[in-house]
Structures are given as C-alpha cells and as structure tokens.
Amino acid sequence: MRTTLYGYIEEMDFWNENVRKLVKTHNNNIISSLKPNDNWPPVSKEMFSITNNIDELSPNLEYSGRIIHFGVNLKSVENEIDEWIEKFESLLSQLIWKESKVHFQTEYCELKTLRQSLDLQKYNVNNEEKLPELIKKKDWKFNSTWNK
C-alpha cells in the first residue's frame, strides 16, 4: 500500500532583516545537511524544498516567513509512523520555525494531520542581533487527527 506524507514547516519571521538572514542561512544549512538516502523510514534531503524570493520585482514568496515544504510517497510506512514522527521532530528541533503541518494518507484511510506550533507563552522571542535559540519540544504545541 502507498502512504503519502506531505506538508510544510513555516519559518519564523519575527526579527529584523539581519536576523532573518541568519535564520534563512541556518535553516538552509540544516535542510542541505540531511542525508540523501536516509534509513527507513526516511526524512531525507530529496523530500524538502524551500521557497525563496528571486528578486525585488518578483512576487513575494516569503511574506511572513518562508515555507520549507516536503512530500513523499512511501510503501506502507504506517507501521513505522511513530519512528518517522520522531525523526521529523528531531529535524524540527534543529530549525527556527513557528508552525509545521504533516498530512498523512494511505490508500485505505482518510487524510490525517499532525500539527506542531510554537507556543509563544513558553518560547522567548528575543530581539538580539544573533541567531535565535532553537525551538525545544517543550516550546511547541502538538495536535493530531490520528492516534499515536
């Protein structure tokens, strides 16, 4: 059976231009450093792409933060979905982001959604001219339409 996993990670965009450049570079480096052929179940480099503005005359594709989008069709990953989520959340803990959605569907079940979002009551968004702190799992909210 085919399992389709797709979704996005929305980059945090709460800072001035200098800090946003640091965040973009950091997130680009993390996605670029993913293994090209990750072990099963994969969270591999080929699954991901990041929206970028081409120039000032083009439409703004980064309004209120860039999108790191991903998608893959896998053979029957539902038995290892907890392991896949663990690997995905490990990736999230290395990025600067504010929301993530994963959609999961097999040929025999309805679309299910996993959502992680930054809890601004727990995470301190500082205005220093340096790379912000990474988002720890204790700093995000978790919602799911499937039972783990």
If you had to describe this structure to a student in words, what would you say it looks like?
With 148 residues, the protein is an alpha+beta fold. 19% of the residues lie in helices and 30% in strands. The chain has helices at 17-32, 81-92; strands spanning 2-11, 48-50, 67-75, 97-106, 112-118, 140-144. The protein has a 6-stranded antiparallel β-sheet. The mean pLDDT is 91.
The share of residues in helices is: 10-25%
DSSP summary, beta strand count: 6
Number of helices: 2
Tell me the fraction of residues in β-strands, as a range.
25-35%
What can be said about the biggest beta sheet?
6 strands, antiparallel
- Listing every helix as H and every strand as E from the N terminus to the C terminus, the arrangement reads EHEEHEEE
Gyration radius (Cα, Å) is 16 Å
Low-confidence stretches: none
Total domain units: 1
Mean pLDDT: 91
The strand order across the widest sheet is 2-3-1-4-5-6
Quaternary structure of the protein: single chain
Q: How would you classify the helix and strand content by structural class?
A: alpha+beta
Overall geometric form: globular
Give the distance, in angstroms, between the N- and C-terminal Cα atoms: 20 Å
